């Protein structure tokens, strides 16, 4: 038994090494591909998806049937489901990525040094990107498109529940690549549901430059801990709105409501509302009534409880990303106390101040240590499309490399270029 | 015995946690510090170093005496040694860093979206940086200065052989911080030579944002493997010069010589020379003679051996960073073969082409996957000061976050700022 498992593991290791080598070769070839070729491949993928729509829907139906038998939750089943409309959305996503400017080859900061050397920084692909994701099959297309557009080879590892859908989509991708004259190994799907493949992928330092996990917090934590390759993490969003004593309270009323109620399940949803004590008495009773009317359960600190009837908030509430119709509210002494609360309890994702005081907004922007800091706007705007990135692969909660919504730029790196004329160093 | 070791380890863990907490608090305070305060602190450190010069030299003399007793190598003893000139260099380094523009607070790419939201990216400190380094005591000052200038708190762990020197320098740094009204915990030296402290530092995810090891390859590899915090790595430089068939051979003659012989021990030194077969017969015999005259031992591939008398190069030679008077030479079919050799055997540090052919230079720049790619300049220019960065903390061989010479910018991150006027998402 043990030897059989070992043999299987070693088979998987061999297959993953092969995938890695193929990806590395494809990545080399992509470095000399043209913008036009990469855009043509994206357009050809869109055409293939359209042509093979039925085959993809049938594969998805098989996944759905198996999911039903295995008793997947309704939420998971909904994420797994493909419909003609969802395939249309994937196709238009490909067109959007094709229409974005090529991020590769641009040169910034080219300056001439005193000795005449011209030195600048050229944007270049990262190389090979490993993407590990859960049930949504559309990620297969989105991730492939973004990686390819930025000149990277991709190794995709989707969830086992979407296995047949992903394989059908991957065939469209491969044939799109071939039609544009690009190596089909530029995008490879890991065609096994064995979990050992994930372990092999996240430790394949020789072949993979970066791992991007997409999915729940537990998946991302586990991968970050076990990977020896750098990981771009997309962890939780415990977002705050702070209503300053100099806020327009009408504006704050709408911003706070929108930040919570636009959609409960997004990482940019507000989870804690902080209110300056100078305006709490005026602001909070109608605000809390509005939340309650919308079906939001509110808990609050002592000072909130003294103003209106709410559940008592516990220490745990300040640390909880509810992702649902729940909200914690705290009255704070002033803006400094608000910043302290946010930097201490927050997840460094997205936090906002509502204020008309110039100095307060500037300090809040400078001192809140989050990937997005907002003034007079709700946290639910934290999103690549809203930021004008065209498309995003996630929202990074890391500080290094890329922070906040990750578009094409986050999938690239910059190298120095040095242009001389026979200079020597003396 | 075991329980004593365990108690010591747990003492160290407790002390490192305290250091981490103090650093985190100092980092918060630094976020609201002004450019002027940070520059004043740097100037005050310089004055302290000047005033306490004798005390620092005495501490260094004690380190040197112990090093002698312990039989440190001559190279290590030289790196450990402080002289009045080397202290002057540290002082002028502080002045240089003070005079650089503040990297913090600048806003790039601020654009107005269709809905009127203004979105940009603000440069901000990383937070807490852990620096682990070997014998040179000047790193204590350099690292402290760069971290502080970029608004970060630093935890410094120097080599045990420089312990007394580092403590004396750290006292100057602390008193400089205090004189400028900044928290003295903004720069903390780990005041123990116990190696367990390194293990605690590189896994203190709650308190430390990034680890920068400075030293030999083995130190950096070990730290990268054991750290759970992101590491900015500075690994080896296996640098190449490729002499294209369209090169000015006179220029190539001087560039290749300079790349090898400017200084053998720097990471930008050329280790392998690649020559297009079309010019090998003309170029190589005099070039090799010049290297031999300079005392460089040359090995070469079959085609080089057919031209002149050299040692045969082995597969291992193409993979070796000599850091000494040795050079491997290979004749390649054309530019593509050169790029393939570099991307396969190189360390992705710095590589150069000598060529007057526009298309060849452009392809070389685009396709060589190295942190610096040069045209008509020797690889020994790879250096932060030469690149106009003012000062550098090392040369990153990573692709993520920062690549190539790391100056102040590499010690910062960017957050999105979103400026609204009561916008809500619909």
Automatic annotation (TrEMBL), chains A, B:
<comment type="function">
    <text>Catalyzes the NADPH-dependent reduction of L-glutamate 5-phosphate into L-glutamate 5-semialdehyde and phosphate. The product spontaneously undergoes cyclization to form 1-pyrroline-5-carboxylate.</text>
</comment>
<dbReference type="InterPro" id="IPR016161">
    <property type="entry name" value="Ald_DH/histidinol_DH"/>
</dbReference>
<dbReference type="InterPro" id="IPR016163">
    <property type="entry name" value="Ald_DH_C"/>
</dbReference>
<dbReference type="InterPro" id="IPR012134">
    <property type="entry name" value="Glu-5-SA_DH"/>
</dbReference>
<feature type="domain" description="Aldehyde dehydrogenase">
    <location>
        <begin position="21"/>
        <end position="293"/>
    </location>
</feature>
<dbReference type="InterPro" id="IPR016162">
    <property type="entry name" value="Ald_DH_N"/>
</dbReference>
<dbReference type="GO" id="GO:0055129">
    <property type="term" value="P:L-proline biosynthetic process"/>
</dbReference>
<dbReference type="InterPro" id="IPR015590">
    <property type="entry name" value="Aldehyde_DH_dom"/>
</dbReference>
<dbReference type="InterPro" id="IPR020593">
    <property type="entry name" value="G-glutamylP_reductase_CS"/>
</dbReference>
<dbReference type="GO" id="GO:0005737">
    <property type="term" value="C:cytoplasm"/>
</dbReference>
<protein>
    <recommendedName>
        <fullName>Gamma-glutamyl phosphate reductase</fullName>
        <ecNumber>1.2.1.41</ecNumber>
    </recommendedName>
</protein>
<keyword id="KW-0641">Proline biosynthesis</keyword>
<dbReference type="Pfam" id="PF00171">
    <property type="entry name" value="Aldedh"/>
</dbReference>
<keyword id="KW-0963">Cytoplasm</keyword>
<keyword id="KW-0028">Amino-acid biosynthesis</keyword>
<keyword id="KW-0521">NADP</keyword>
<comment type="pathway">
    <text>Amino-acid biosynthesis; L-proline biosynthesis; L-glutamate 5-semialdehyde from L-glutamate: step 2/2.</text>
</comment>
<comment type="similarity">
    <text>Belongs to the gamma-glutamyl phosphate reductase family.</text>
</comment>
<keyword id="KW-0560">Oxidoreductase</keyword>
<dbReference type="GO" id="GO:0004350">
    <property type="term" value="F:glutamate-5-semialdehyde dehydrogenase activity"/>
</dbReference>
<dbReference type="GO" id="GO:0050661">
    <property type="term" value="F:NADP binding"/>
</dbReference>
<dbReference type="InterPro" id="IPR000965">
    <property type="entry name" value="GPR_dom"/>
</dbReference>
């Amino acid at each position: 038994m043990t030897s059989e498992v070992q043999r299987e593991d070693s088979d998987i290791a061999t297959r993953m090494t092969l995938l890695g080598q193929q990806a590395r070769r494809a990545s080399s070839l992509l470095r000399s591909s043209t913008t036009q070729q990469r855009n043509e491949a994206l357009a050809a993928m869109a055409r293939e998806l359209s042509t093979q729509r039925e085959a993809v829907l049938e594969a998805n139906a098989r996944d759905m049937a198996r999911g039903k038998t295995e008793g997947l939750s309704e939420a998971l089943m909904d994420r797994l489901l493909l419909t003609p409309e969802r395939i249309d959305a994937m196709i238009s996503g490909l067109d959007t990525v094709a229409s974005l400017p090529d991020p590769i080859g641009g040169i910034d900061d080219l300056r001439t040094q005193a000795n005449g050397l011209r030195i600048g920084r050229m944007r270049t692909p990262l190389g090979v990107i490993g993407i590990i994701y859960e049930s949504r099959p559309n990620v297969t297309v989105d991730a492939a498109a973004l990686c390819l557009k930025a000149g990277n080879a991709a190794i995709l590892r989707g969830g086992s529940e979407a296995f047949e859908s992903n394989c059908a989509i991957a065939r469209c991708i491969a044939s799109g690549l071939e039609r544009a004259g690009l190596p089909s190994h530029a995008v490879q799907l890991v065609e096994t549901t064995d979990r050992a493949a994930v372990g092999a992928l996240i430790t394949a330092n020789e072949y993979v430059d970066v791992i991007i996990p997409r999915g729940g917090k537990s998946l991302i934590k586990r991968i970050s801990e076990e990977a020896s390759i750098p990981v771009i993490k997309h962890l939780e969003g415990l977002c705050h709105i702070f209503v300053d004593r100099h806020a327009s309270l009408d504006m704050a009323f709408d911003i706070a409501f929108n930040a919570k109620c636009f959609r409960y399940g997004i990482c940019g949803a507000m989870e804690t509302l902080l209110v300056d004590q100078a305006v709490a008495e005026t602001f909070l009773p109608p605000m809390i009534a509005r939340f309650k009317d919308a079906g939001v359960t509110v808990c609050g600190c002592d000072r909130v409880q003294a103003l209106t009837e709410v559940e008592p908030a516990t220490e745990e509430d300040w640390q909880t990303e509810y992702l649902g119709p729940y909200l914690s509210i705290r009255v704070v002494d002033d803006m400094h106390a608000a910043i302290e609360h946010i930097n201490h309890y927050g997840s460094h994702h997205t936090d906002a101040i509502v204020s008309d005081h110039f100095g307060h907004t500037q300090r809040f922007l400078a001192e809140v240590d989050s990937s997005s800091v907002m003034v007079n706007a709700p946290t639910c705007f934290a999103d690549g499309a809203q930021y004008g990135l065209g498309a995003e692969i996630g929202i990074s909660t890391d500080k290094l490399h890329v922070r906040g919504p990750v578009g094409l730029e986050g999938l690239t790196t910059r190298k120095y270029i040095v242009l001389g004329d026979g200079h020597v160093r003396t």
